[in-house]
Amino acid sequence: MDLSDPARVRAFFAGIGEFDHLVYTAGEPLALLPVAGMDLDAAQKFFQLRYFGALGAVTAAVPHLRAGGSITLTSGTAATRGGPGWGVAASICGAVEALTRSLAVELAPLRVNAVAPGVVRSPLWQGMPDPEAMYAATGAGIPAGRVGEVEDVARAYLYCMTQRWATGTVVLVDGGTVLA
Fold first, then answer.
1. Which of 60, 84, 95, 102 has the fewest Cβ atoms within 10 angstroms?
2. Catalytic residue among 4, 70, 75, 122, which?
3. 75 is known as an active-site residue
4. What secondary structure does DSSP assign to 11-64, as a single string?
5. Which of 74-83, 125-134, 168-177 has the highest mean pLDDT?
6. Domains within the chain, CATH numbers bracketed
């Protein structure tokens, strides 16, 4: 689905009727965008899918979410641990985390949380030069001694959907990346 088209997103949710949980994980492969030579169109495109796409999905989904349901968004460790070339990604992650907290209050009693993964072996990193070398170096430098696997992070999303006392929370699943 084209998540940049609000009419299509609204039609999608109207077509499925009531449901219990929305998990938003849409994202294109990451690319570093250093300030020197910044491609502002690329930066806006990242924001469009990762932030405004999430906001649009939430807006369209809320009327169809059953009582007791939840929304789980996706952030990342870049929100708390930036670096050269990570300004756009860090900004998006920070914006998603602020949105999560605000929506938790605004949409209560619906629960709204976010998952903030570290480096996870997935297609997300295929835009980086030599992802396998990056996985090895990242894993060697963090307390867990390895990068995450998709299954590791999936458990965090399940937690957010099933933990009925958590709202406005960002669940960090990063193998200790922010500690290293």
1. 84
2. 75
3. yes
4. HHHHHH--EEEEE----PPP----STT--HHHHHHHHIIIIIHHHHHHHHHGGG
5. 168-177
6. 6-175 (3.40.50.720)
